Automatic annotation (TrEMBL), chains A, B:
<feature type="domain" description="Glycoside hydrolase family 20 catalytic">
    <location>
        <begin position="160"/>
        <end position="494"/>
    </location>
</feature>
<dbReference type="GO" id="GO:0005764">
    <property type="term" value="C:lysosome"/>
</dbReference>
<dbReference type="GO" id="GO:0030203">
    <property type="term" value="P:glycosaminoglycan metabolic process"/>
</dbReference>
<dbReference type="GO" id="GO:0006689">
    <property type="term" value="P:ganglioside catabolic process"/>
</dbReference>
<feature type="domain" description="Beta-hexosaminidase bacterial type N-terminal">
    <location>
        <begin position="24"/>
        <end position="156"/>
    </location>
</feature>
<dbReference type="InterPro" id="IPR025705">
    <property type="entry name" value="Beta_hexosaminidase_sua/sub"/>
</dbReference>
<dbReference type="InterPro" id="IPR015883">
    <property type="entry name" value="Glyco_hydro_20_cat"/>
</dbReference>
<dbReference type="Pfam" id="PF00728">
    <property type="entry name" value="Glyco_hydro_20"/>
</dbReference>
<protein>
    <submittedName>
        <fullName>Beta-N-acetylhexosaminidase</fullName>
    </submittedName>
</protein>
<keyword id="KW-0326">Glycosidase</keyword>
<dbReference type="Pfam" id="PF02838">
    <property type="entry name" value="Glyco_hydro_20b"/>
</dbReference>
<dbReference type="GO" id="GO:0005975">
    <property type="term" value="P:carbohydrate metabolic process"/>
</dbReference>
<dbReference type="GO" id="GO:0004563">
    <property type="term" value="F:beta-N-acetylhexosaminidase activity"/>
</dbReference>
<keyword id="KW-0378">Hydrolase</keyword>
<feature type="active site" description="Proton donor">
    <location>
        <position position="333"/>
    </location>
</feature>
<dbReference type="GO" id="GO:0016020">
    <property type="term" value="C:membrane"/>
</dbReference>
<dbReference type="InterPro" id="IPR017853">
    <property type="entry name" value="GH"/>
</dbReference>
Length: 689, 689
């Protein structure tokens, strides 16, 4: 009784002492020491800033207050933080030595000390202080009546200087608000580079005053004005994020060539109508905006001075919109077909002594370097730009791997050994909808290669890439988040932070907090499922979505022509996400059961099986008024069929016909239905073996 | 057996014949005749346009295709509609005689004929054709495997020419994407005026190149650039919507006066420090941005020529951003306190022979008319501008009613009798969170007053007003929608369309379709409840939200000082909405039970009562880890207590102590908890009587 009283007492006065494992921090800090105490929040809580920080910390501190208030409902008195040293007596003191420069190698470290009556953030720059504020928000705890921070000392800094996300806005245009909420999310997990893929075969997305034809002809009206771009750059800056624009050349050139076909490489042979006169006249091809996905041949003509004239004028307009020091010029997937068949280009190569298309592309890329230098930008490109004679100033973006027939991250090692700085994206292609573990286990620092310290230093970090062939504004967030938070941790935290169970546990909270911040990865699923079910009660459909995952890799939209960019992305596969929640839970249940066939463990498994039998019946009911559910029924039926058999086997202890079971199992392995796969296949297999 | 076969057969070939009552059209069309047939959709479905429409119909038709595709998942082949008569053989033919002019009195009528193999839209203008496309989308039906339109002939036109929504972006700024999604929703229910309340005591939201101080000092960085405003006007135009900007003067002037205090009316008496020297010097007051809600005194000085100079310059910059012919100058709630106490203004009134503040305000308003005329804009203002000598060209916006101590819509009748055109907003204040029935039963055409045809013609229509003291971007949609769709119907459909049960039934579908279109009124509730519950399973909290409604009228945030504009609007009251769904269902159950105490009807009632007892227990559990649930417990406990008693009374047929019951009932009538009220109070009362 005494013990209970004491517990109650400390519960009221302070709080049950929290353990490190209970914290849902992500990325996990470099060092954290919890002490025995709490800082209890109340509405008088205020923030004060000292030192010489950039004014972005004022925006950051104000946003921090609003988010804290939104979570706690405390009606914090302080509305806006508007200047340095405004409230010297404030409970939260942020001390910054100097103005943080947005870019690589800046000091982003911070120290966060939570005492029971005071919180102190010490950081060299405001960028570190912003990170500290995110950590502090993640530290927030509560008991039944109040919110508090556990007392602690945290020392933290990033492992890599480049922690990026690329968003492709060419395939599916993404409005300003979508970009902004993703920048918010990036800042929340301490990412600092937004790589903006602005141009591709499917669209040109930048307003150009001097070349309005580009958006007029190649954007369907979907582009960013220069003012909007500047607005995004400012918004990113306020969150400590560098924006790296990309204009992809010389391949992926359809959009540019729609407006300027005269700088294209393709030769058209205009045969005269009569068979007699075999005269050939070469002319200019016309290009039309690509609606499919894939690799296409439209390529800029590197032998044409007009190409460089145009690009130079484009850079002159685009570069000043971005305050950062890097410009990505793409350079990927140029197959050079149109170069091979163009006699003028062949002649040019001979004249310039360029032995092959690689050398020709290097020639091309080298022309861009001074155009960018003029605006104080360094050139960055996908790994294909790394050929003999490429300037060592260029940053190599390593993206190829097993899918492309080369060892994962091969170009990364080649780059650093060749003297280039490099950023890793292979392994971080979040658009391919792999599970989070696949990304979390990829480290930019190769383990099986001996590198010198200098070479290691050239590995700047990594970047999650979100290509948007299959993602609209409605689904984009669910393709990036929450998985990218795990990539953020990989790039920030110590390399030894690798516990996948800890990650999954923390990711649940992070995911929910991200949606709190404005993302839509959870809530838009409901919108899609409601439409698919025709506004019927869709619990069964939701249950099914929790065991299904969209087809991975490039196996959805095979060949790139099944879907066009304007196709409906409102299907079941679009509502489903990687890491299907019930599939993960079922796997855990199966593992427990196989380890120990207690009744309790058995029930964990059979509850799922019963649920799926029931679900299938309900889906059939729903489908009577929902054509979009029809394509799901074969897979649901397969799951129901095997579940029924397994129930017989497990509950009634009857032995099952192994050939029947293996047939049923393989039906659950089908990828032929509705662009999804059953994520429970592997777990079912364990039960059958 | 024969009968069943025939049913199956028609089910496959055609579809069960649908009845008018099954259609979820809103606003209900003027005339609709269903015939015996169906137009079955397939992926070859195409659209063609003929005649001389405005090019906005190309955007409209393309959007129509994408929305149809999103709902059906058919992968419609036609991507973009880019010119007139592009696909002469298309199944959907849209014929427009002429270019629609955005503004009042334009022909918005259409005829929509759905045949079994062809759909024909005939409209005088593209504006009518856009409405027809919305109706066609609402006509979409399905069986188990396909989507179809029932064959029909619809003839339709609006009853009123002004069908508007006002959104206040001064109290809480609303980003561009929030405005756009609300414009989409307006178009979906055939509304055609967006009244943009851009300026108030809490903020100035328009970029001015000549007067940058306004946004620098009075916007907290939250304002629209001129480019963004033009972008919104274009977006609205493409949806057939007129944009009417409002700059509220001479009252509600804090934001303007922050930047230009010299044109304020307040006199400051600068007493010298020493008591001896009683000299008074008058000086300029400084103003600070208002963070509370209410009516404040800062008012422009109508005696100061600089006031008119500034306003003229502001109109010169702002007017050209808007293509429409109307400009709203506010004019409301000027209490004239600062005028009374300003000797200079009193002297001015004497000189100009202005007998009182009303005449002074008329003098002020009349100066604005030529400033607007210069830009071909007519002046509109809230009803306070209607005083003796006000120009008959001005449009009077009728807003006062019982809350303001006058009969509902009094000024509307005064206006039309006085020769003014008028728009009704009294009864359409959606921000006051009344139930939908309260708005649906308000008709702009007064029933108890005899008006001439000319007078009736001056009633232009009505406008839902969404003041934003208590609404952020997260909650705004749920305060406007779906209820405003009922107002849209009132303003479009025949006056005899008044069946509230039909409305409620159709509104369910409309609500869901609006969210499909991008609104957030359903899904953001989950985001808020998840935060309140601390990411625990929150079914009980959701159940509770379905019987609670936010405090109505002006009873939340009493006095305007409990909440500031930066307060957290993430509370339970923000998640709740009017027309709480379980409250409506419970009321229906109670009515059935009281009519016929069958066991079946009894169960309908007792299921709810049991649910609430259970819910209370679960809420208590949840609250152990969720401080934000604590304030809800007293109300949940009251509901549980009375439910327990009623169960005893109903199920066990025990008689209940009437004084105990009436005490318990009154506890359910409390408005003292968490800014919400129990929406089941009236129904419970019926059970106890």
């Amino acid at each position: 009784m005494k013990y209970i009283l004491i517990l109650l007492f400390t519960g009221i006065i302070a709080n049950a002492q929290i353990k490190k494992e209970q914290l849902d921090l992500m990325p996990w800090p470099q060092s954290i020491n919890l002490t025995q105490g709490t800082f209890v929040l109340n509405k008088n809580f205020k923030v004060n800033i000292t030192g010489n920080p950039n004014s972005r910390i004022l925006v950051g501190a104000t946003n921090f207050l609003r988010r804290l208030d939104g979570r706690t409902g405390l009606f914090l008195q302080q509305g806006f933080v508007t200047k340095i040293n405004e409230v010297p007596t404030a409970e939260l003191q942020i001390n910054c030595v100097k103005n943080g420069k947005i870019g690589l190698y800046e000091d982003e470290s911070y120290q966060l000390e939570i005492q029971s009556n005071k919180i102190i953030i010490n950081a060299t720059t405001d960028l570190g202080a912003l990170h500290a504020l995110e950590t502090l928000l993640q530290m927030l705890q509560n008991n039944s009546t109040s919110y508090y921070f556990p007392t602690a000392m945290i020392t933290d800094f990033p492992r890599f200087t480049w922690r990026g996300i690329m968003i492709d806005v060419a395939r599916h245009f993404q409005p300003i608000d979508v970009i902004k909420r993703n920048l918010d999310a990036m800042a929340a997990v301490k990412m600092n580079v937004f790589h903006w893929h602005l141009v591709d075969d499917q669209g040109w997305r930048i307003e150009l005053k001097k070349h309005p034809k580009l958006t007029e002809m190649a954007s369907d009206g979907n582009y960013y004005t220069q003012e909007e771009i500047k607005n995004i750059v400012k918004y990113a800056d306020e969150r400590g994020i560098l924006v790296v624009p990309e204009i992809d050349v010389p391949g992926h050139g359809t959009a540019i060539l729609m407006a300027y076909p005269e700088i294209g490489s393709k030769v058209v042979n205009l045969n005269s109508d009569s068979i007699e006169s075999k005269t050939q006249v070469s002319g200019i091809t016309s290009y039309s905006l690509e609606r499919n996905a894939g690799i296409f041949s439209p390529t800029l003509d590197p032998s044409n001075p007009k190409t460089y004239q145009l690009l130079s004028e484009i850079f002159d307009e685009v570069c000043p919109l971005f305050s950062g020091s890097y410009f990505h010029i793409g350079g990927d997937e140029n197959e050079g077909k149109d170069w091979d068949s163009n006699p003028k280009i062949q002649e040019f190569m001979k004249r310039k002594k360029l032995a092959n298309n690689h050398e020709l592309q290097t020639y091309f890329t080298m022309q861009l370097i001074p155009m960018l230098k003029k605006h104080h930008k360094e050139l960055m490109g996908w790994e294909e730009i790394m050929t003999k004679n490429m300037s060592k100033d260029a940053i190599i973006h390593s993206w190829k791997g097993v899918n492309e027939g080369v060892p994962a991250g091969k170009s990364l090692v080649d780059a650093v050994k060749g003297g280039y700085k490099t950023v890793l994206s292979n392994g971080y292609y979040v658009d391919l909808v792999y599970g989070v573990e696949d990304h979390y286990t990829v480290d930019p620092m190769p383990k099986d290669v001996v590198l010198t310290e200098q070479e290691k230093a050239r590995i700047l970090g990594g970047e999650a890439t979100m290509w948007s062939e299959l993602a609209t504004s409605t689904t984009l967030d669910s393709r990036i988040w929450p998985r990218t938070a795990a990539i953020a941790e990989r790039l920030w935290s110590d390399e030894k932070v690798t516990d996948i169970n800890s990650l999954r546990k923390r990711l649940k909270t992070v995911s929910f907090r991200l949606e709190d911040l404005g993302l839509t990865h959870i809530k838009n699923k409901d919108v899609l499922l409601r439409n698919i079910s025709n506004n019927q009660k869709y619990q069964a459909l939701e249950d099914f979505s929790n065991v299904c995952e969209p087809l991975k890799k490039y196996s959805r939209n095979k060949g790139g022509t099944e879907y066009q960019m304007y196709s409906p992305f409102t299907l079941f596969a679009d509502a489903c996400t990687p890491d299907a929640s019930d599939a993960l839970a079922f796997d855990a249940a199966v593992n427990s059961y196989l380890k120990n066939k207690s009744l309790e463990n058995q029930v964990l498994v059979t509850d799922f099986l019963k649920k799926w039998v029931d679900m299938n019946a309900k889906l059939i009911d729903l489908s009577a008024n929902a054509p979009l559910i029809q394509p799901l029924l074969p897979l649901s039926k397969s799951l129901s069929a095997i579940s029924q058999q397994l129930l017989v086997g497990i509950v009634k202890k009857q032995s099952l016909n192994s050939s029947v079971m293996s047939d049923l199992l393989e039906q659950c392995n089908s990828k032929a239905h509705a662009d999804v796969e059953l994520a429970v296949y592997t777990s079912l297999k364990k039960l059958i073996k």
